[in-house]
C-alpha cells in the first residue's frame, strides 16, 4: 500500500526533490559556508572560526554553523526607508530557488530498473539550466533596484550586465557537448560519457572530448554565481556588498545560502557534463557486479567529484584577484565569446570529418 | 612645465592573456599552504590570544606597579615627582607621615587613572626611589566601567611572591584585579603593621 503511494510519479518526484535538496544540496551548501571560511584560513595561514562552543566543545568550529543560523534568525529584519517593500522582500528567494532548481535534472546515480536517481529527465535537458540561471539574475536585479540604495543599485546593475553577457556564451560553450553526444538530454550526455577510446583506455568524458568547452563553461558558470574572480557585483572594496547591501538577518542568509547552493550546483553540473556524471570509469570491466555496490560506487564517485569542484571553486576564489568590471566585460565579449564560437565551429568540422 | 608621467611596465603578451600560467603559479602557492595547514596547521602563525599570550619585551611599558622594600612596605616616599612630571595628570598622591622617621613620608592615597595614562613612562624615569615601575607585562586592560580604571595604591602594589615565580614580570596572574578591590583594601601593606 505504502509502496504503491510512493510509486505514484508525482509523489515519487516530490520525495526525490526532498531527498536531493534536503540531503544533498542544502547540507553541502551550508557546510560550505563554514568550509569556505576554514579553508580560506588554511590558505592564508590563519586558524579560522573556532570560538563558538557549548560548554567548551567547539568541534573545530563546526558549532559556528549553528551559531550563524541562530544569529540570522534572531537578527532584526530591516528594510531601508523608501524601499520597494514587496520586491525587497521576495528578491532573496529568487536566487535560492534558481540554485535549488538546478538539481532537478542532475542524476546522482544510475537508474535501477525504472527508478532513476534524478527528479526529472526532461527532453530539453540543459536548456532548462539556461532558463533557470537567467531567472537567478532577477534575485540580484530586484534586490539592487528595490533597496533604495545607490550602492545596491550599482551592484544590481553590474550583476545584471555580467550575468546576461556570460549567459550568452555559456550556452554556446555547451553546444560542443551537445554535438559530441548528440543530445541535450542529461541522461544521454551522461551515458555518452561512459564510452571509451582506444579499447578501454580513456573514458570519453566531456573534459577530454571538449577541453575548451569545459574551460569556457566553467568560467561562465563561475561568473553566473558571481563569485571571485567575477565578484564585481559584490565588490566589497568599492560598493560595499553590492546588491544585497541593505539586507540583514534571514534574508541576507538566503543570499548567502543561494551563493553556496549555486556553488554546489555548478560543481555537480561540471561533474555531470564533463566528468562522466555518476559513471565510475572502467567499472564495466567488473562483470556481474551486484547492483547495490554499483549504485553506492556511483553515488560515491558523484559526491567526490562534486565536493572536489566545490573545493576547487573556493580555492580559485582565494587564489585569483578580482577582475575590474570592464575587464570582466572585455574577457567575456572579446575573448570568451569568440573562443566559444570557434570551439563550436571546430567541433562541428571535426564531427563532420571523423564522426 | 611638462607633467612627468610614470609609465607602468605592464606584462602582456600571449602568456598573460591566457591567464593559465599565472593561475598555475597562484594555485601552486595556495594549494601548498592549504595542504600544509590541513594536516596539522603547520604554517599557522595565529596566537590564540586569551589562551596564549605573546612574549612581552622586558622594556614594554605596561600597567604600573609600586615596588616594595624588603620588609614589605612600599618604596614610595610620596615625593610627588611622578605626579609633577606626568603629562596627562593622571597620578593623584596624598602623603602621610611614616612611622619610621628615617622614611618620613608614605602615600596614603596613590591613584593612577589608567584610562588617562598615555604610558609614556616618564613617571618611572622621574622616581628617585625606583618605587614605580611599568614592567608588569599587563598589556591590555579592559573593564566595564570607568571607575575601575582608577587604580588605587593597593591595586598597584606589587603583590607577587618572588619565590613562587621564576620570572615575576611575565607570570603575575595573581596581581590583584579591580573586581576584588574590597578584599584587597583591608590587607593593605602600605603602612607598617603595628
Ligand atoms: S606613564 Fe606617563 S602618563 Fe602614565 S602615569 Fe606615568 S607619567 Fe603619567
Ligand atoms: S612613586 Fe616615586 S616619584 Fe612618585 S611619589 Fe613615590 S617616590 Fe616619588
Spell out the blueprint of helices and strands.
The complex is a heterodimer of chains A (355) and B (194).
Chain A lengths: L1 H6 L1 H35 L19 H12 L10 H17 L24 H21 L3 H32 L4 H7 L3 E2 L4 E2 L2 H4 L1 H14 L24 H26 L16 H27 L7 H30 L1
Antiparallel strand pairs in A: 1-2
Helix pairs in contact in A: 2-10, 2-11, 3-10, 4-5, 4-10, 5-6, 6-9, 6-12, 9-10, 9-12, 10-11
Chain B lengths: L13 H5 L1 H19 L26 E2 L14 H5 L5 E7 L7 E9 L8 H5 L5 E2 L16 E2 L1 H4 L24 H4 L10
Antiparallel strand pairs in B: 1-4, 2-3, 3-5
The complex binds iron/sulfur cluster (2 copies).
Any overview of this molecule?
The complex is a heterodimer of chains A (355) and B (194). Chain A has helices at residues 2-7, 9-43, 63-74, 85-101, 126-146, 150-181, 186-192, 206-209, 211-224, 249-274, 291-317, 325-354; strands at residues 196-197, 202-203. Chain A has 355 residues and is mainly alpha-helical. A two-stranded antiparallel sheet of chain A has the order 1-2. In chain A, a hairpin with a 4-residue loop joins strand 1 (196-197) and strand 2. The radius of gyration of chain A is 21 Å and the shape is globular. The termini of chain A are far apart. By secondary structure, chain B is of the alpha+beta class. Chain B has two domains: 12-46; 65-184, Alpha-Beta Plaits. Chain B contains six helices and five strands; from the N terminus they run H-H-E-H-E-E-H-E-E-H-H. In chain B, a hairpin with a 7-residue loop joins strand 2 and strand 3. The radius of gyration of chain B is 27 Å and the shape is elongated. The structure holds iron/sulfur cluster (2 copies).
